[in-house]
Write a structure and sequence with these properties.
- The chain is of the alpha+beta class.
- The protein has three helices and four strands, in the order E-H-E-H-H-E-E.
- It has a single domain, classed as 2-Layer Sandwich (GTP Cyclohydrolase I, domain 2), CATH 3.30.1130.
- Strands 1-2-3-4 form a four-stranded antiparallel sheet, covered by helices on one side.
- Strand 3 and strand 4 form a beta hairpin.
Length: 108
């Protein structure tokens, strides 16, 4: 089974610039989770969405690469049935003429 979470958008302190450490900015996260579904083993996408947002807002990461690594580890810990994960984290407002971000896939 595959869970898709696309364009999860929220505000967070994230980044290395002085202004990024003071003013929350828009963050967009996409997440794809693959796991073995059964009626008694499922992953609630609402719980995953909340976990992603809470984790990034709480930790206030300096690097978005660190945010992805930490998020992957905490998602696997919280949602044990997942065996493959793809995460994309974008910051649409940091540069005027583009959206920047990072993406990584994880196999557990």
């Amino acid at each position: 089974m595959t869970i898709l979470i696309e364009n999860l958008t929220f505000e967070s302190i994230i980044g290395i610039l002085e202004s990024e450490r003071i003013t929350p900015q828009t963050v967009i996260v996409d997440c794809t989770i693959q796991y073995d579904y059964s009626p008694h083993t499922f992953i609630n996408y609402a719980d995953v969405s909340m976990h992603i947002q809470n984790s990034i807002q709480k930790e206030q990461f300096f690097l978005i690469e660190e945010a992805l690594e930490s998020l992957a580890n905490s998602l696997k810990k919280e949602f044990a049935p997942l065996h493959k994960l793809s995460l994309t984290l974008r910051k649409p407002d940091i540069l005027q003429n583009c959206t920047v971000g990072v993406q990584k896939s994880f196999i557990f």
